[in-house]
Structures are given as structure tokens and as C-alpha cells.
Amino acid sequence: MRNEEDRMKDREKEAQGLKDALSKANKEVEKLSRIKSDFISMISHELRTPLTSIKESISLVLDGIAGPLNEEQKKFLGIAKNNIDRLAKLITDILDMSKMEAGRITMRKRKLNVNELIKEVYASTKASVEQKNMEFSISLGTSVEPTWFDPDRIGQVLKNLISNAIKFNKNNGRIKISSAKENINNSWFVRIIVEDNGIGIPEKDIKNLFRNFSPLDTSMTRKYGGAGLGLCISKGIIELHGGDIWAISKPGAGSKFIFTIPIYKKDEEFSFLIEDSIERARRNESKLALIIFEVKDAKDRNEKVFNELEQAIKNTVRGPEDKITRYKNGEFLVIMAVTDRIGVMAIIKRIRERIKTALVFGISIYPDDTADKEELIEKAELDLRKGENSIIPQKILLIIDDEEGLTSMLSFRLKNMGFDTITANDGDRGVELAKKNKPDLILLDLMMPKIDGFEVSKRLKKDSDTMRIPILVFSALANKNTKESIEQLGAAGFIEKPFEPEDLISKINEVFKYV
Q1: How many domains does the chain fold into?
Q2: Facing residues of 260 across strands?
Q3: Up-side HSE of residue 245: CA atoms within 13 Å toward CB?
Q4: Three-class DSSP category at 286
Q5: I need a labelling partner for 466 at 20 to 30 A (CA). Which of 113, 176, 266, 476 fits?
Q6: Whether residue 410 is found in the same domain as residue 386
Q7: Angle between helices 114-130 and 151-167 (to 10 degrees)
């Protein structure tokens, strides 16, 4: 029995030793990968700096700034400039490849329509295509909808594919870019095709197209140039977007390069964004705040309110890597912000100044609260359910009275009581401001020149945008007829001038209690 226990202990010790050795080896590999990546970054920088000076010097001479040139001199300098551009691109490709291998390439994804990017790339590359006497066109699918992608990186993929289509084509050739929305295995994608009628690719070479340093064959490399990095980098970029890339081609019949970008549903979008944000925070050793908002009052939970809130929050959150989306069938609004708890409070303060809908919210911080995605979400939801964090927007009061001194003093006092105020010194202006700002309450004087308070009230009640705004009437005219007229107008309350400030505040709070 004892021997069996000893053997088990020995096996456990051996297994632990292997585990430790494997962990150590992995750390060494990661360390070597970082050293390699850092070395390539340094070399790239050292190469780019003199290249920039050389390119600028040649450009100055070519532009005639350093003196006149004959046509032959321009031709040779143009060749030099083109080769500098090729060398600069090769350095960029090597750097990108190194970052990709080390898992350090950064994607700055935004929610955009890829059709707009295709138009931009088409406009910027059209001249270089037409220089080769080629026909260049685009065909954009009308059903393509916005999705999350890095426009710089997807633009890089498109330019790589267009560059290859130019390189492996002929004079009077054709290049076409098209887009469409496509369902693949019950998931929606944007499918983009870069198509040409060039020399085509042998079937045996297609499987090697997207591998490192894999140009088609040595004879083609000598003829057309290139290190075979562009397609490999393109594949890495597309896969980091959750898509796929492939080629269809036959020698002499042209080529189609096709890639896809996923279109996320609301909850899929949330899951993808939180994973992407956590991974970026981990890589950059930064903090990530998850803020989940819920509309406080059930009566305000409708798509119109959600869309307005989402837009207001998007206009408030400023970080280039911060994300805003919806969660749980769109019933919750979510911010993922690269910040800590203090930064969250600054975001909340800005949101409070912009919105008119009451919200409750929950917060969790990566990695302070947890490094696990599911737990990060659970902690934010638990904080939300406690109901301790809320945004109660300032009530907006519109004061309409022809006495400027009174409106000024009332505005000052009410602002100190936590209200936001707008003032108007005649009825026409009051109606205009009510339509524009849609205040929560209107304080209306009855006796005014031009149009009086009765007419103002009638106009507001006739307009669908203002008919539901409560009106608190104040007037020095407090006889029986006046009070009956006020009741007929459907005013929310009446207060007689002169009044004590406390009485006015009490009346205002009473109105809001029943609204």
C-alpha cells in the first residue's frame, strides 16, 4: 500500500515537473517572440527614418524646387522614388507580420458601413489603376448594413488586393470591387469581392497564397516582385475580425479574392465587444469599465427613448477605443470605456448634463473587480440591481413673464434649487422656446402685452409637441372669473402674485409629483 502511495506521489511530482517545465518553456517562447518583435520594430524605425529623408529629398528635386530637370533626369528620379515607396511598404509589411505573430497587432474597430470605406479606397486608388489603362468599377449592395471593423486595417486589405489585381493584370484589363450582405450557416456577413481579368493563378498555388513569404513561384517573383507578405497579413486582419478570406482563380481567366466581415446582432455585438475590449485591456495593461444602464421608469422603455439615449451617450463618451452598444434584446445600454472608477464618474457627470430620461446603472472594473468576462458582467448587473446608482436629469422649467426682473430672480433661485431654467419675456417667444426645448414645466404669467397667458396656453395645447407639458399659472389677477378661466385651460396649478419662494417650490414639487 505504501509503495502504491509513493508511486502516486512520484507520478504527481513528475507531472508537476513537466507542467512547470512547459510553463517555463512557454514563457521563454513568449519572451523570445517579444524580443524578436521589439527588434523588428527598432530596425523598422531605423530604416524608415533615413528613407523618409531620402524620399523627401528626391521629391524636392522632382518638384523642381531645387532647380530645373530634363525629362531623362525626371525619369530616373521617378524610378528611385517608386522603389523607395516599395521598400517602405515592405518594411511596413514585415512590421505588421511580426506584430501579428506576437499577437500585438491592434484593431481599432468602429461601427461603420463598409460601402463607405469601399468608396474611399476606390477614390484613392482610381488614378493608379487608370494609369495602367484599366477599367475600374464598384458595385455596392444596398442591403449592406453597418458593422464593427477597423477601417484602416480593412482599407489595408482592400489596397493589398487592388495592388495585386493591378500587378497581375494587363493593359486594358478590368478590376471590380463588389459588396453584398450574405447568410452563411445562419449568420450574416458582409461579403466583399475584388475581381480582375488578369493572368490568373494555377490551382496548385492557391492553397499557398495566404502563407508567409509565399509568392506564386520564383519566375513570377522575378517578373512581378513582392515578398508574399500582403495576402498573409490580409488573412490575419480578416481572421481578427471574425471573417474569412479565400481566392477563386484559373490561369488566363482572372481571379476573385473574397473576404467576409461578420454582422452582429445586438447581443452578439455585446459579447464580441466585451471580449475584444477585455483582450485589448489585457494586452495594454489598462483598466476597462463596464457600465450597464437601465431606463428607470417602465413608461419610458420604448425604442424611441432608447435610440435617443444611445445617441446622447455616443456624443458624450470621448475615448477612441470606448464602445457603446445594447444588451439583452436591446433593453439595456452599455458603455465599455478604457478608464477607472474615477473616470466613470466623469462620464456619468457628462451624461447627466445631456439626457432627460431617468436611468439606473451598475459598474464593474477590469481587472480590479475581476479578470473574467462573465464575472465582470455579473458584477455590473448586481450593482445595477442594487439601485444605488442613478441619473436623475435636471427638470427644465420655462418661465414666461414680461417682468424681466422677476424672470431673472426666479431663474436664479430655481437654478440654486437644482432646476434648469429658460426664460421668455413675451408670449410669442415663450411659445417658440416651448416648442424648441420641450420643458418639463412652464411657469406662465397671465397678464402680458401682445399675447397674454391665456392665448399662450391655447397655442401650446393645440400643438402635439407641447400639449402635454404641464403649466403652472401665476398672476396678480386672482378673482373668481380668472380662476374659472384657468380651470378651463387645464392648468396644472395656480399661484397668486406676490408669492413666497417656498410656496412656489412647493407648488412645483406638487405638480411633478402627479406628472
Answers
A1: 4
A2: 191
A3: 23
A4: coil
A5: 476
A6: no
A7: 30
Residues forming a β-bridge with 246: 258
**Cβ contacts of 24 within 8 Å, gap of 6 or more:** none
CATH number of the domain where residue 459 is located: 3.40.50.2300
**Domain boundary pick from 246, 262, 278:** 262
CB-CB contact of 332 with 261 (8 Å) = no
Domain that holds residue 478: 396-514
Q: In the numeric block, which cell numbers belong to residue 235?
A: 488573412
Read out DSSP for 381-400?
HHHHHHT--EE-PPPEEEEE
Widest pairwise Cα distance in the chain? 108
Distance in angstroms (rounded) separating the CA atoms of residues 335 and 270? 10
Q: Evaluate whether residue 48 is within a structural domain.
A: yes
Does residue 182 lie within any of the structural domains? Answer: yes
Q: 367 and 436 share a domain?
A: no
- Which uninterrupted H or E stretch holds 327? strand 323-327
- In three-state secondary structure terms, 449 is coil
Residues 159, 293, single domain; the answer is no
Tell me: do 299 and 282 sit in the same domain.
yes
Q: Tell me whether residue 495 is in a domain.
A: yes
Residues 258, 246 contacting (CB under 8 angstroms): yes
State whether 412 and 485 are in the same domain. Answer: yes
Q: What is the DSSP letter of 172?
A: T
Residues 185 and 83 in one domain: no
Paired sense of beta strands 441-445 and 396-400, if any:
parallel
Asked whether residue 285 falls in the same domain as residue 406, the answer is no
pLDDT digits (tens, 9 = 90+) for 242-276: 999 999 998 888 999 999 999 987 778 888 889 88
| DSSP bridge pairs for 138 | 177
SS3 (DSSP) at 362: strand
Query: How far is it, in rounded angstroms, from Cα 483 to Cα 479?
Result: 6
pTM of this structure: 0.60
Query: Over the chain, what is the mean pLDDT?
Result: 83
Residue of higher predicted confidence among 54 and 282: 282
